[in-house]
């Protein structure tokens, strides 16, 4: 909460303008291209990060596929994760998030601008429909991000089990799977500090369809988690 207050105070002159612009885009998403909406979100995100004493250290941007129609699979540390990735990701992407975050101010508008899907984990029929919708959109050239853990890790940089079902959309779309390792993202909002913080975002080499086509979803999940954990161990500052 302290860092959010600092973010607002340091951008106090621009906050009304950014807030109006964000709500306008969220309410009129079809008036703007995905690139226009993403550029607007990145502008606000960058101002918030700068004001909140946050520096995002991006690695492996060259691993992001040159053609759209891929899926990011990061470890999940908290509400700040998407904002950290957005700061260093040059191409637009959308999100599949649990429905609860759809009521969080600011994130609600951000997800509206991204045309994100909110999934109800208690509703199997709705969850399956989201998978079908994401599959269609990825095949059509949109990029998506899914947190395969389902919920944030309560153990900092140590991920929980990655759920195989989270990879069904990628498997059906036959698209590249891009593991993303987040380091210290949880410290942005969960430590009560507003001191300068360096958050690492590592885009790992994608798993192409040819690599995982004969694997079960649970095997893909375990492999993506393994690659992320390996990257975290190699780069985490003790």
Fold blueprint:
Layout: H1 2-10, H2 15-27, H3 34-51, E1 54-59, E2 71-74, H4 81-88, E3 94-98, H5 107-113, E4 117-119, H6 124-139, E5 144-146, H7 168-173, E6 177-183, H8 187-190, E7 197-203, H9 209-212, H10 217-235
Helix pairs in contact: 1-3, 2-3, 2-5, 3-4
Report on this model:
Strand 3, helix 5 and strand 4 form a beta-alpha-beta unit. The longest helix has 19 residues. The chain contains ten helices and seven strands. Helix 3 packs across helix 4. Helices cover 44% and strands 15% of the residues. The chain is an alpha/beta fold. This is 1-acyl-sn-glycerol-3-phosphate acyltransferase.
Summarize it:
It is built from 10 helices and 7 strands.
Taking the sheet with the most strands, its summary is: 7 strands, mixed
Shape: globular
Low-pLDDT windows of residues: none
Helical fraction: 40-55%
Number of strands: 7
Write down the Rg. Answer: 17 Å
Spatial ordering of strands, largest sheet: 1-7-6-2-5-3-4
Q: What's the tally of helices?
A: 10
Distance between the termini: 25 Å
Q: Which structural category do the helix and sheet elements fall into?
A: alpha/beta
Mean pLDDT over all positions: 93
Sheet-strand content, in percent, reads 5-15%
Element pattern in H and E: HHHEEHEHEHEHEHEHH
